[in-house]
């Protein structure tokens, strides 16, 4: 980011929520970079940006699509980069139909299941037909259930061939380039103005800023956070930005890319070595019933030997993982204990588990490093679900609301729950803070850094490693004499970490296991240095293939802390970056197809003809001796099939994907749909909401009627949630601190002067915010930082709500939880909740107490006519989801001839 010439921050408030990383934005600005903040609110980030551009929350795809259209309409793409390094020239098969043809849907939508069959999105095969994943395209009904779109954090989707049909003139109507032009043609500056509330001058400023700061000599960087991810089409928000950046040549080069702002709490690490139901370490998919019943089935499905690039070796990564977990018990004869792994038979995310708890299907629950009573969507549903458990374990630093809801939660006050009637046995286990334990964390840059323990944890507080290691030991001791087959995985697990000086398991021993080691041969016991050393024959073991090298030479590379990262450009003496300590992914793209730097100013990696290898300050993200002119037979598969101009080495065709022929479950291209509930009608398509979204149609999860439905005026305003510098997520680390509590003592809402006047709200007074799920109260902050926007000819007011407070007496400060307002609807790719946009009403004064609060929420529901069907209809207007114009009536000789 420090090397960027322009930085666009959207979907986040980086200065406030990621202040340590923001130093690099500040450094870029000092070097002359232009910084633009696009956000519903004027924030501390906006205050130090060159320009703040207000936007209606949830409309980002319209703006980004408008920028793509601007680039394509004005021939401002970095054409040489686009043709050589992306799939712009690749042909899509004849069966594909776009949203432009089907009134807002892509081909393959199945209204019965509410999901897409993506078979028609595939590449055209050189021998006819389509280039498919192994076993054929997976229907969205199963792919969505296992959040398959979330698997591609380290490698692209699997395809069964590396050969494609390309037209490098980009003229064929079925090239990705021409499909892009048609798809985004309706995303005009005027549409951006009408749907985003962004004026033509601001749009022009943004468009000129990114295009003038892209190309051979200059680069633009994007940064985003949960303001992009937490939507029913959050993955497509990010895809739109990726398309834009690729068209401008802003991937794989200094000062380019798209930074997912993920910070010190190791959110990046929690997907790399996952706490997610659908992933194994290194973004290997969790096996699924019927799809991955045997190891052979699994390996055939997750990595094809016919495709290009390093994902073809997924078998080596998987077998090494099984060897790390099950050691000597894992042999070729028993498929390396593959059958010990659980199988997904449906979605098992946070919100599906909550529903199962409510239905009495879950006996016990661990709450670790989170506070669902405050921090999860539909907080009331979360707390009621916990009341149905037999037991609940909460590990935290303080007595958070998820540990005390049973005696002082909102439902106790309202009378919905009575403490004496709750059968849940709650165990509170004190946890160590980040300075009281050693271990790694991984952040935005994929950088693994090491924390050394500063002080011992107080009392019985334990680190996660100590707690789970001890729990595992006790379970294994109790099962030691078991002959039950289901206990073998626990008994055969490797669980022999040596103790540190305090008698606890040594965290560096865990890091060494994650890194990987040779199991057999002359190097047995030695740590691996690269994931390319992993084998599928059981001779290597490794807990996460993308982290191989972090403990190379039995040295903790994550603990490197040379001031300024050392003398080199890449600061590579600070921490360790996966994979292989590469500081910029896909850095082969920093040179042109002939291997020469695009410009001296942006010189990074280049082909050294004399040495016969790639050179530069970084670790080459490419076969180091593969010459730019190399054109191996693509049928070789794997890294051997990569041509010298295939920089995207984890993609099945070696190219970056402007169009996704596989991997996503809700469309091969981004398309704008409104949020699950929205007072704004979708002006782009007849389809109002994302058709493949994951819905929970329940009485305890009602939605506000959307634009065009009766009752939409009952919840006329849009609310969005955000975080503050002074508080940390759900407040477990900050609301117990007197210093931080004094800085932000009360829950508040930000409203514009126009909304304050319309609703009689007074600055520092009280307001009640009502959604179909709950009503909360907040102090009023009347501000110019939140603008009333003109959308489709009418004013739309937005309400800003920080989400750090919860009800209880243990913290220094308490308040109503904003997440009680939020409904549960999910992105089908990732199963993340839409918590950044919802519909509400705002009333002056404090909310009712006790049962009267329930009466207020119920009265609003009845006035709006909300039922479980509201907003939960897949197809908005079935009569318009047909092909327009009718191909049977097309006249090839006529002026209106189309590609039909």
Describe the structure.
Helix content is 23%, strand content 13%. The longest helix is centred in the middle third of the chain and has 15 residues, at 464-478. The relative contact order is 0.13. The chain starts with 5 loop residues before the first strand and ends in a 36-residue tail after the last helix. A hairpin with a 2-residue loop joins strand 27 and strand 28 (794-796). Helix 4 (60-73) runs antiparallel to helix 8 (189-196). The model is unreliable at 895-900 (pLDDT under 50). The chain contains 25 helices and 31 strands. The protein is an alpha/beta fold and 900 residues long. The chain is globular. The chain has a 6-stranded mixed sheet.
Please give a quick description of this structure:
With 900 residues, the protein is of the alpha/beta class. Helix 15 packs across helix 17 (379-386).
SSE layout and pairings?
Layout: E1 6-10, H1 14-17, H2 22-30, E2 34-38, H3 44-48, E3 51-53, H4 60-73, H5 79-85, E4 109-110, E5 115-116, E6 123-124, E7 130-131, H6 140-145, H7 176-183, H8 189-196, H9 200-212, E8 220-224, H10 226-229, H11 234-247, E9 258-260, H12 269-272, E10 279-280, E11 284-285, H13 295-302, H14 314-326, H15 350-358, E12 364-368, H16 372-375, H17 379-386, E13 391-396, H18 401-408, H19 410-414, E14 425-430, E15 439-442, E16 447-451, H20 464-478, H21 488-492, H22 507-515, E17 517-518, E18 540-541, E19 576-577, E20 606-608, E21 613-615, E22 694-695, E23 717-722, H23 738-743, E24 748-751, H24 753-759, E25 766-770, E26 775-782, E27 789-791, E28 794-796, E29 798-802, E30 825-826, E31 838-844, H25 851-864
Parallel strand pairs: 1-2, 1-8, 2-3, 8-9, 12-13, 13-14, 23-29, 24-26
Antiparallel strand pairs: 4-5, 6-7, 10-11, 15-16, 16-19, 17-18, 20-21, 22-30, 23-31, 25-26, 25-31, 27-28
Helix pairs in contact: 4-8, 4-9, 4-11, 15-17
Family: Belongs to the prokaryotic molybdopterin-containing oxidoreductase family.
Pfam family, one: Molybdopterin
Domain Molybdopterin dinucleotide-binding: 718-836
